[in-house]
Write a structure and sequence with these properties.
rod-shaped; Helicase, Ruva Protein, domain 3; single chain; mainly alpha; 2 domains
């Protein structure tokens, strides 16, 4: 058991040492985009959970294997679900997530324009449909 742990530590250290500065920069950028599945509200780059450390090591292994950034994101999303990505993919399942801010903005603009139009009509007397009231009531 101890030998296996030491061997894993040596292999991980050797793999990390073999990375170029560009690979390490890619790994750090990806670490900031992938959510820790234990903490759930912070990226693996900031998490101190052992699972986050494993995920960071996995990012570096995938980079060393030649995977692109998109392939690494897809790997984690396929393994843990879209929730693991701090910037979820645009897909049929996430269209509401991406479209909701735009829809709310359009709805707010429509509501504001409608409210301003009503206030302008009320102020100008354009919207009054009531018949004029005579000054003297002759029926009395």
């Amino acid at each position: 058991m101890i030998r296996a742990a030491i061997l894993a530590l040596v292999l991980t250290a050797g793999a990390a040492a073999a990375q170029t500065p560009a690979d390490e920069a890619r790994a750090r950028a990806l670490d900031a985009e992938i959510r820790c599945v234990v903490c759930e509200n912070e990226p693996i780059s900031q998490s101190t959970a052992s699972m986050a450390a494993d995920m960071r090591a996995l990012v570096r292994e995938r980079i060393a294997a030649g995977d692109s950034d998109a392939e690494i994101r897809a790997f984690f999303a396929d393994r843990y679900g879209d929730f693991v990505l701090l910037r979820p993919r645009v897909s049929a399942g996430t269209w509401a997530l991406w479209g909701a801010p735009l829809a709310l903005l359009v709805l707010a603009a429509f509501a504001a324009a409608s409210l301003l139009r009503r206030k302008a009509e009320a102020g100008a007397g354009i919207g009054e449909d009531a018949a004029p009231v005579p000054e003297h009531d002759e029926d009395r």
